[in-house]
């Protein structure tokens, strides 16, 4: 009797333990499978770069949705851990050390803008992490880090590749213009763009008749434009930030600037609100861009992505059309995603090797990196505004208003030359 | 310096804090805390420095960012030119910014009150423009500072910076306290309360003001010297930025300007809050919280926290 | 030669706009010694309200600014009441007020971000983009209209301050508070009115700002230096001095931009300020 009862008790206890063990391991297995994969970064959500930063974040969230719909990465749901760096480089080291040491994120990507990417470099380099980066000009020139990857399609020599097309277009004209004016804002990106322009101008045999910089806080651009006009430059290369680009274009129109070519590296002319406000003043300006809705750039997925972005961006106070940064913000996460899947893990060395080797298919087309982490082939477009009607944002949703002149592989029309009205 | 019991407690506390900080570098490898505390220490040093001229002497300096940035850029220039080690760079910044402070001190001969304040602001803007156009330190393009991989004594470079900054901040607090309690401090207070009367009473106002501005300048320069190594990319827009100037004024105001411990309290409170908010709430609410904190604290305690404590202690006694 | 003439003209147009930004500060800071560092941020707030009225209802920017001015007046009065209760009644120095207004500045900036977002905002009107050419002098209406409005507003404020009872009471309260009380005016109400008036001017200055160029919430920070420099350079308490200082700043910036190199404009402009203070420590027309 006692034997049977104690035997039964023992069996029950054994069974209970076995069950507990089994369910425990099942639970922990499930928990591990569900443990989120954390991607950490800082982003400019306030301060001068916040307009673009917030738009980028919307695009990144769309990517996250898509990945999680497919079951996540490596079977784990993807989570973002991010903090606002307020467009202040001094905040970046603190944020990245927290992400890595406290939040223990699995992967990192960069913030937006050279000033915000650079301070994170020493930290990611020390930990030997793969660092996909969003729109910084020639950051890796200083660090030579072999795990840095830049999604901006500047090209293997970013500073000169940026404006190469602009000067090449000028050189193709007959008669070839001879004089160049270079003007830029006193700031990191614009000065680098201007330095590249200087090199290209000298290489192209041009005489630089005006070469000045202006402070970021300038209110009125007409003295500058008049001085440029007085120099009688035929080709005018401007490197500027959004409010300054607006100021320059308006002043150029008011002064009646006559030039053969006008444009260059003016940030802001890619933003919908500014395009709408400037309207016909934009016509015939040749400026850089990275994606426009021309038939030659209809990459698989990009139109659908933009439609979703535009829906998500409503009422958020960011660029409503999202042609400039958002597709690239989506693409650089696609690069990361494809690499993680291809190497089937989070080994940073393997990820980096894969990113150097592979050609990625993204919403911005095929992406291939050079040894220094920049694009192997430059795809900085030179785009000319044409037939822009006043006060109309919808006209920029489709083709015909921003004609791609360069590179030849993506050309969608011929240049209208000279610029003069 | 070691005469009274209060003195002994002070120095003991200072040494203890330093040793604890040093001890942390042995046990805590997590870099984030060092980064966050470094930022708070830097703010503390700037607040203490500002208060020497602002709180003790009564001259408001609006151009604190100028001294800080010149300290940073002096370190950059000396590093690029001579490749000096960090301690010598700090000394270099102290000398240059001390001389700047001396110059500003002579400015007080001509300008009083709000005119002096605006002049310091103008000075900062002029300096910013000069740096923006100086190619050797990168001009407006900015300059990259590469920090060494291997560091003597410590696990990582940020730990070294942290310890250095800790020592410098504690040193500056000691200097500030020394000034506050000394004859010089009483002279400065006399200048603050009524400069003309002080001059008539025989206080050597010019000499004291020069001491005050020079020490302030040197201290701010020293606060700025390690900055390029902390952030690795320096450009004029971020070195001369508004927050440095705002914090240097707001922190002593909130802590209390009359006493040497005021800026320390203010910096720990506001600086700590800013660091915590950066990695929690984040987003624009960050700035909102700072703004609300400023308004609330200064409205409820116009004499600063020190003033509140003093009032409360008086009520207890009375 | 025409580059020089155009530079001078552009400088005067710009300077008038600077005067519009600084006139409110000339009242609060120049006459009442209230260090309202949030003043340029109020201007930006004015720009945003102008923008919303312009883009949603097609209202002319200047009209929008004028319509909104009374609301800003009330806001100014309310803020002064808080400031007074916290600081002036207890006899605190203007320094604590400084921290208070820093806080106000940040709060306004964040509210703008939360309500309007961080994208750049621009307004459109028929005259923006048009030009009047007088010989070789070009007059862009985008700057001429602000010039006209700014001049009108500055003149109106100046005449108000020097001719009406309340206006002169404002001037008086700065100089001799006790005497003013003996004359039967309540200094607190006078100051309250003055502060409200100053903030009302920011609504109009804001409408001019957004006409000249795009705005984003933190744009105010760029104008802090200029606004205070103009008030001090002109001399505390002197409106004509402030106007001359503003025009001087505009012209200097413009000339340096045209001839030497725009990058040096701030150094030269503020260098002029420092030089003037060295020679005349109370500014151009300040009360000694």
Main beta sheet of chain A, described? 7 strands, mixed
The main sheet of chain B orders its strands as: 1-2
Largest sheet of chain B: 2 strands, antiparallel
Supply Rg of chain B: 19 Å
CATH superfamily of the domain at 35-156 and 299-368 in chain A: Response regulator
Total number of beta strands of chain B? 2
Which fold name is given in CATH as the topology of the domain at 35-156 and 299-368 in chain A?
Answer: Rossmann fold
Structural class of chain A: alpha/beta
Question: H/E series of chain B, N to C?
Answer: HHHHHEHHHHHEHHHHH
How confident is the prediction overall: mean pLDDT of chain A? 89
What does this entry look like structurally?
The complex is a heterotrimer of chains A (421), B (318) and C (288). In chain A, 42% of the residues lie in helices and 17% in strands. Chain A has a 7-stranded mixed β-sheet with strand order 7-6-8-9-10-13-14, with helices on both faces. In chain A, strands 2-1-3 form a 3-stranded parallel β-sheet, sandwiched between helices. In chain A, helix 2 crosses helix 12. The radius of gyration of chain A is 26 Å and the shape is globular. About 3% of the residues of chain A have low confidence. In chain B, helix 1 runs antiparallel to helix 6, helix 12 packs parallel to helix 15 and helix 13 packs antiparallel against helix 14. Chain B has one domain. A two-stranded antiparallel sheet of chain B has the order 1-2. By secondary structure, chain B is mostly helical. The two termini of chain B are 31 Å apart. The mean pLDDT of chain B is 88. Chain B has 15 helices and 2 strands. Chain C has one domain. In chain C, 76% of the residues lie in helices and 3% in strands. Chain C has 11 helices and 2 strands. Chain C has a two-stranded antiparallel sheet. The interface between A and C is large, with 44 and 43 residues.
